[in-house]
Amino acid sequence: MKKVFKRLALALLALLLIVLISVGIAVWVVFTPERLTPIVRNQALKYLTCKTDIGAVELTFFSTFPQFGLKVSNLNLVNPVTGAQSDTLFNANEIVGIIDIVALYKRNELVVNEVSVANGSINAYIDTLGASNFSIAVPDTAAVEEPADTSGMPFSFIDIERVSLQDVDVSFVDKSQAMQAGVKGLTTTISGSLAADDLKAHLKVDKANVFFALGKDVFAKDLNVSMDVPAEVNLSTQLVKLTNAELAANGMAVTLSGTVQNDTIGKRIVTDIRYDLANWSIADVMALIPASVQGYVKGIDVTGIVASSGTVKGAYSQTEMPFMDIRLQMQDGTLKYYEAFPLPLSNINGDISLSTDLKDDAASILRIASFSASTPRSSFQTSGTVNHLFSDISIDLTSTANVTVSEFKSYILKDMNVTATGNVSGTVKSKLTLSQIEKMQLDKMRLSGSLTLNNFSATYDSLAVKTSQSKVNFVLPNPNASLKGAGFAAVTINTKGLEASKIDDFTARLLNTLVSVEVSNVTDESQKSGGVVWAKLNAGEIEATQKSNARVFLKNASLSLNATGFADSTRIPSVSCTFSLDTLFARMDTLDVAIANPAGTLSIAAQKDSPKQPELSVDYTSGKLFSNIGSATAGITRLALKADVINDSSQQDIFLQWMAKGFIDMEQGRITTSSILYPIEIPSIKMDFDPENFNIKESKLRIDRSDFSLKGSLNNVLSYFRHDSLLRGSFLFESTKTDLVQLMVLTSGIGETEAESADTVLSGPYMVPKGIDLLLQANIAEATFGDETASNIKGELRVKDGLMVLDGFRFTTPAARMQLTAMYRTPRKNHLFLGLNYHMLDIEIERLLQMIPQVDSMMPMLRSFKGKGEFHIAVETYTDSLYNPKKSTLRGASSIKGNNLVLMDGETFTEIAKTLRFDKKTENRVDSLSAEFTIFKQEIDIYPFLIVMDKYKAVVEGRHNLDMSFNYHISLIDSPLPIKLGVDISGTMNNLKFRPAKCKYANMYRPASRRAVESRQLELRRIIREALLSNIRED
Amino acid sequence: MKRIIFYLVACISIVAFMTSCEKEDEFDQALLYGKWVSGTVYYKYISNGTGTTWDTSEDVNEEDGQPFTWTLVQADLTHIHIMTVGGNVPKYYKVTELTASTLKYEDDFGVSYSFIKVTQ
Description:
Shape of chain A: rod-shaped
Helix content of chain A: 10-25%
Oligomer: heterodimer
Helix content of chain B: 10-25%
CATH architecture of chain B: Beta Barrel
CATH topology of chain B: Lipocalin
Radius of gyration of chain B: 20 Å
Structural class of chain A: mainly beta
Distance between the termini of chain B: 63 Å
Number of strands of chain B: 8
Radius of gyration of chain A: 64 Å
Largest sheet of chain A: 10 strands, antiparallel, barrel
Largest interface: A-B, 36 and 22 residues
Distance between the termini of chain A: 169 Å
């Protein structure tokens, strides 16, 4: 077996040797360059018109093994043309061609196994007239005579396995088009085959340095191009198919796959191309930009790495554009373009896709998977989509930024006087269109985001705002509206510290505060709600100051607000506010207010029948309250207030403008003021009220030693202010102790006109309120009026239309049981009426004179008596504004009655006793005394009255004037003497004159012999006494 | 002597008799109706027996006048001043002259008053 193989191997070796020897003979002996070169030169002269230099032509085998090749050395085509860049049209150091002779000869197939050109150059030139230097072929006149077959190829099959150029310089100048193009060192390989209409080709450019210019515009210079382009072409359909074709310029490669077809029927180019490029340096790309268009990118300094991939599908014609789906990625980019953006950008990274046919607006979309960039101190990034690129651009972006505000101060107009510093970071989602921005159609935009402000401050003119840290969340529209209609927008501000101020005016500070606001679209007039606002505030501390005059401080404040219809100009908006605080402190000028735990609700709404008139509702409670105005202070332990208030702005009177219904519940109030000597303590006030009625369920007041309790109701309040009715009231006034002077001070001046209003201090006359009818039932255990004290006071105080009446007041003083009816009327400030109807029972006459010293002036002889009696007096007068009596108006009537009185010894008594010859041992006892006297102007008339003493009976009468002059008469009607004597006493207290006189009333107490004068006097006494006693009320 | 005493007693009796039977003056009260003034003091008598009085020297005007009732019986003029707080102040005067323009009276203490009529 081995022998067989051995013999076969030897046979093949021998055969190979024979072939090689034959080839060697053919190459080196038969077809030598000396024989072939002339043949080729002759043939060149036949077909070329230009000068042709051919160095040598030789047959190759071993260098082109296993094919025979034809090698031409030093080929040079010279065609001098004026203006051409070179006389040499073509030259090459070496040209090798390998053609399958057998296929060409036997099957009419052009099989080019290899054509290679090495180290050559091509200089093509077209002059301005269109004449070229490469029109060197001898015209083929025979071809004209033969019918041309233009429908088919001259070969049944063409296969170009390899055409290569090695270091070939190509230059093309077309002066008719002002174009220059050149390739240096072109090293390329072309292969392909053509069968029927199908062309398969493979172009590979390993090296090419490209230059291209049109006119003076250089579009490519030193452009190192490489290619690896496999392609399939169907000539009949003009379809080109690329598979992973690679093109590169200056190292920037792009890979193409797909088809391109020239649709001659549709007159369009149909593409289905995919491309990929990676790691392109933007600086390199920028360098490729022709100098002619460098102006467009002047000032732009951009770097970075970009990559892109995409497809181009569809037809291109005058009416069509292929659909492009392009993805662009960028890494580590930088940009300096100060004309458009004042800051350098760095760390630019992006992944952006564009899908468009440049025509179909609906199908065109820009997708930003991510895009981020940084300035020296800021950064931002965004992602999302941009639609409708060719009409109303629509964006749907999510953007995040971390901005150092001061970096962007150049964006602020200098004349706006705005400054800003600090940091703003956060994310904003936006979905809106360009037209919405231009038209500010906020209701159609979709915006949301969260921004955090750190150490941020901004000023605008005199306004300033700063925050240590605040977070602002917003959404537009608001998907989770807390109040129906408030779906337009929502904003939440959460701040650790925020301060807003106006220079030399106010400052407001918020600490640890959360503010949420939701609103409706106030610009949308079609909304039935007419504007809705919902707001909620939770603040750790709020402080607002205005210069040094006013300050408000709130601690742990919570507030919620609902408002609807505020944009409706046809009606009052509906507003509801609920609030609660731990502490509220306010100061304005000399007014300080501090409130603990104030809480409540406040609502405002339009009235049903009057949409432009507000209706208010207040429900308020608070703990301790303290306030002071200067030296005046007010304090409350607890306060509850609930009120419904209806406003009627058409009314003139402030009370009629604001009609309230509700209640007040207050405890432990205390008021001090310099105008009132003692603090006013208010243990409790509970009161219901409505526009017509005030119902005081409980009210207690304490002033110094006085304490008051008032219950009752005040009615016709509204009617009173409308001047339809008297203000009526009925109250029960109880007190364990009352200082009447203090009470008068407190109520002075109510109801007076402004010109007549009294001060809080009773500096002028006390003016009784007008237009009111108040009844005060008093039950006072003890009352003082100046130095006088009374107890068990029961009676009624009525104040009615300028008249104040103490009606039937019964009380007890240390001196007597008393009943007092007093009247005080103030028709005019200088014409004041004062009247008393005073009944004192079981009173010591001595005490009576102490209590009412004026009685001593009226009836001076009383000071001579000692003992108990009863005293009735009615006296009235008008006074001027200083309470000086107008004597012409003085009226009075009095009745006094006593038994077992003791006549005090004294000079007067001694003189009388001496004149009447009293027994010196007689006790000065008066068995009975009953007298009446009247006061009229300055005259005090003592009507004749009987005194029984010792063995005497005497009748005394007379006149006593307020100027302290006397004119008395004493008739001694019974005595041991046989005659009736009389004595006249006249003069003054310092100069009394006693004269014996006729006994004027000898028969006064003898009815049978009484004279008319005596009867008349008794009748007048009866009239006086009965009129007085008729006023006494039984307990 | 007895005759002398008799004539003396008779004379005294006649004088006494004549004195006690002195006829008082009688005045027409219709003349009293109207407004009378004495200095700054005014009295206004109304036919129904009421009246008012005021003194303008103390800023008291007619509308501020204080009420009284009055009677005129022969020469006895009685004013009963009515007090607002209850109670009456009677004043008695003896009229000495009453004409259409003049009114004069005096009280028990010899104080005289003279008025002239201002209006009817």
